[in-house]
Design brief:
The chain has about 220 residues and is mainly α. The chain has a single domain (about 10-215), classed as Tetratricopeptide repeat domain (Serine Threonine Protein Phosphatase 5, Tetratricopeptide repeat), CATH 1.25.40.10. It has helices at about 10-35, 40-65, 70-85, 85-105, 105-125, 125-145, 150-165, 170-190, 195-215. The relative contact order is 0.08.
Length: about 220
């Protein structure tokens, strides 16, 4: 079935929702910075990454299915709940979002939802649960998108971060290296297509991972 555009006016409510999410991320960033923890920078990057990925797929969803979907509503509410440290509420909403993703047979939605659920468990220091969810999201993303995709790199970074928090530095380093290779290949593809700005962002991200790795 072809995807039909819903028009500029129909996207306006979604744009407002995304602006709210960006403001929420900025508030989250300020709160984390006050904690003066090394993991804070990485947590902010990951939270922002989820919002970026979520924004992309919400825009796709708005075009294909109308202004909002039940999955979108659940994800937005779950992210807001986790940012207010209402973790049990966030877990419930994300569980419902997983069900909705499965019903729709949308693997990308499922991977994004599992990633967010992993972040919720990581914030509560439940690292083993978070690790399992990040690995599931990684496997789903690789199968749906292939081994060379920015979202796959994001999943690899999530896995590496939670492994490092558990003292599994060697395993984490291997995943960091995989993420760098993935991003560099993605950047090369973008350059071949003449998308130099996108390529530069991916290369910069790969460089940041390498710098963090060298400091450890």
């Amino acid at each position: 079935m072809p995807i039909e555009s819903s028009g500029e006016n129909s996207l306006e409510p979604l744009k407002q929702l995304l602006l709210e999410e960006v403001r929420a991320v900025n508030a989250y960033k300020n709160a984390v910075e006050k904690r003066h923890m090394w993991i804070g920078e990485r947590a902010v990057q990951r939270q922002f990454g989820i919002v970026v990925l979520l924004s992309l797929w919400l825009l796709c969803a708005s075009t294909a299915f109308g202004d909002t979907t039940k999955w979108h509503q659940l994800m937005k509410a779950a992210v807001e709940a986790s940012q207010r440290a209402k973790y049990q509420q966030s877990e419930k909403l994300l569980g419902d979002a997983v069900d909705e993703a499965n019903k729709s047979k949308n693997k990308i939605w499922l991977a994004i939802t599992l990633n967010q659920l992993g972040l919720v468990y990581q914030d509560q220091d439940e690292y083993e649960k978070a690790e399992g969810l990040f690995k599931r999201a990684l496997a789903i993303s690789e199968k749906a998108l292939g081994p060379c995709h920015p979202q796959v790199a994001d999943c690899l970074e999530h896995c590496a971060a939670v492994l490092r928090l558990q003292g599994k530095g060697e395993q984490a380093s291997k995943l960091d290296k995989r993420a760098v290779v993935c991003l560099e290949r993605c950047a090369a593809v973008r350059r071949m297509k003449g998308q130099n700005k996108d390529a530069e962002k991916l290369e910069a991200r790969a460089g940041q991972i390498e710098q963090h790795h060298e400091k450890r």
